[in-house]
Amino acid sequence: MSDFWICFIPEDPKYMLDTDGIKIIKEFPWCQDNVAIVVSDIIQFADAGANFESVICPVCKCDLHGWWGGAMDGAYSSGAGFINLDIATPCCHNNTTLNGLDYNFPQGFYSSIIEMRPDCHADVVQIPQELHKDVICQDLFQTTNQKWRVIYKRV
């Protein structure tokens, strides 16, 4: 059986939650024992795991899957994480970032991530609170003044 996580990352990959922000977030009713808040000075990639379907140019809608792996390798430095996300798409030469590509399912880059990990009992995945991603994103925006992206990860 695979696990299903719901993750929240800021739209700005360099945004790092501070101690005060983490303290406020931990007070929200949706922030339970199954929620992990991780902050790093290294930019990392939040992927959709087995949910990953495609990566598309946001301008001309060209499929970039064959090119994308090399672009990811070029942006990554061992021990330093993703150091330069700026790219020009190979199809229409649009200047954007790896974070700005259209991922299906959504994915992205982060320095701060909030992971909701389900409780598993008798092979049934349960998220203990009713999840309203829009409410959570609004709570996060009000706390951080940052827009947040939802990642549905199947591992």
What does this structure look like?
- This protein starts with a strand and ends with a strand.
- It has helices at residues 19-25, 65-75, 133-144; strands at residues 4-10, 35-46, 54-56, 76-77, 81-82, 86-88, 95-97, 102-104, 108-116, 119-121, 124-126, 148-154.
- The strands form five sheets. The chain has a four-stranded antiparallel β-sheet, covered by helices on one side. Strands 3-8 form a two-stranded antiparallel ribbon. It has a two-stranded antiparallel ribbon with strand order 4-5.
- It contains three helices and twelve strands.
- It is of the alpha+beta class and 155 residues long.
- It has one domain.
- The longest helix is centred in the C-terminal third of the chain and has 12 residues, at 133-144.
- Helix content is 19%, strand content 37%.
- Strand 4 (76-77) and strand 5 (81-82) form a beta hairpin.
